Amino acid sequence: MFLEKSLGYTICTIARKTHQNLTHKFSPYNITPEQWVVLNQIHINKNISQKKLADIIQKDPNNVKVLVDKLEQKSLIKRAPNPNDKRAFFYLQQIKVSSLLIL
């Protein structure tokens, strides 16, 4: 069938299966693949702001806020005020996240 041979179909199938595999791999840690991406970027970019984080992972800042809120509720990250901008926060990684970053 033509659909199964198209590049777009193949890419979508690979993306869907990759997301399913990552969801399964992260399930023991009670995080989603999207939350892992946020944790990973916070680890790589120390003291990153929400705006910068949204730019890097190419997501809407409001969606990033929801992801960050859930990670903070799980005590995986912590917010710290930005001394240069009272409206902004830095996001700091918690110690117990390190084992997740090697997945």
Structure description:
The chain is of the alpha+beta class. It has a single domain, classed as Winged helix-like DNA-binding domain superfamily/Winged helix DNA-binding domain (Arc Repressor Mutant, subunit A). The chain is 59% helix and 17% strand. It contains six helices and three strands, in the order αααβααββα. It has helices at 2-5, 7-26, 33-44, 50-57, 61-73, 98-101, and strands at residues 48-49, 77-82, 85-93. A hairpin with a 2-residue loop joins strand 2 and strand 3. Helix 4 (50-57) crosses helix 5 (61-73). The N and C termini lie far apart (36 Å).
TL;DR?
The chain has six helices and three strands, in the order αααβααββα. Helix content is 59%, strand content 17%.
Write down the overall mean pLDDT: 84
How many domains, in number, for the residues? 1
Strand order of the largest sheet: 1-3-2
How helix-rich are the residues, as a percent range? Answer: 55-70%
CATH architecture: Orthogonal Bundle
CATH domain topology: Arc Repressor Mutant, subunit A
Shape: elongated
Head-to-tail CA distance between termini: 36 Å
Main sheet, how many strands, which sense, barrel?
A: 3 strands, antiparallel
Q: Return Rg in Å.
A: 16 Å
Q: Would you count the extended β strands for me?
A: 3
CATH superfamily: Winged helix-like DNA-binding domain superfamily/Winged helix DNA-binding domain
Structural class: alpha+beta
Q: What is the CATH domain class?
A: Mainly Alpha
Q: Helical stretch count? A: 6
Strand coverage percent: 15-25%
